[in-house]
Amino acid sequence: MVLDETDLQILRLLSKNARLTNKEIGERLNKTATPIFKRIKRLEDHGYIRGYVAVLDYDKLDRGLVAFTHVQIKDHSRVGLQDFLERVIAFDEVLECYQTSGEFDFILRIAARDIKSYQEFMINKLIDLVPLTSVKSTFVMREAKKE
Amino acid sequence: MVLDETDLQILRLLSKNARLTNKEIGERLNKTATPIFKRIKRLEDHGYIRGYVAVLDYDKLDRGLVAFTHVQIKDHSRVGLQDFLERVIAFDEVLECYQTSGEFDFILRIAARDIKSYQEFMINKLIDLVPLTSVKSTFVMREAKKE
DNA sequence: TCTGAAAGAGTCTGACA
DNA sequence: TGTCAGACTCTTTCAGA
């Protein structure tokens, strides 16, 4: 499937604000709502749009501590990596999980109430999962962009 | 503002799928669409919900190379940090920007077509912004969770 | 805080250029 | 690919419990 400039602009708009109506998008692209609707349907069906999510303010939700946790595990076999992945994404604290190449095997985005909860997550949940080689935490002070 | 269990469940559902209708959410929580509507409005007005975005598949968009770029800058004054932040979020390649504490000053989530485009971004855009102390790139092989 | 009815708005389909 | 009209569905408001 080939995307034209209109498709790309639709994706650009929706990645910033998924609540735009087809009519509003159409007005910006000089079209009516119908072709916008059809194009979005096509983009969804072909997997270009994977879904729509609400962006929450974790500060207000008493989960103001957001961290990136860089994890290196001991067992690098396919089974070992898959095992860690499946078990770690089951935790509510894990907002995102990326398998990576390079120094770390996984980067996790974590939300916890405070530093104490974060440490509890580390000690009682993360560390027990599978044998780890290293864990490095970086705390987020400000989210400046998100799309 | 105090959130009850119903509010939290609404947030949980919408953070995974923002396309659920008020009626569908109501059915899961044993209520009608009206109270769900009112609660969501309240959560939006009070900033618990910051917005709604489409999740795109960057693989398919020929921006399959997603990386976390860890940046340490030379000038740690408030102005220096703010300056870098404002200029870096203007780049299309920058999907997300987090100001962090610890080893790095910023973590960027970057999307590029391939390794060559990524290097071009680094050399022609990122490096020129402000004097940097270190830049470390970690490439994403798989996104296993995102909410 | 909730239900249920009703108006307003958006989505989605189909005929046609 | 696109416009337009109409059916359908969801959102939103309001009266009442």
| Class per helix and strand makeup of chain A | alpha+beta
Strand order of the largest sheet of chain A: 3-4-2-5
Q: Roughly what percent helix of chain A? A: 25-40%
Order of helices and strands of chain A: HHHEEHEEHE
Helix segment tally of chain A? 5
Oligomeric state as shown: homodimer
What integer is the average pLDDT of chain A? Answer: 95
Spatial gap, N to C terminus of chain A: 24 Å
Write the layout of secondary structure elements.
Two copies of one chain form a homodimer.
Chain A lengths: L4 H12 L5 H7 L4 H13 L3 E8 L8 E9 L4 H11 L5 E8 L4 E7 L2 H15 L2 E15 L1
Chain A binds a DNA duplex (17 and 17 nucleotides) through α3.
Brief descriptors of the model:
about 150 residues; transcription (chains A, B); DNA-binding; DNA-binding (chains A, B); homodimer; 5 helices; transcription regulation (chains A, B); WH_DNA-bd_sf (chains A, B)
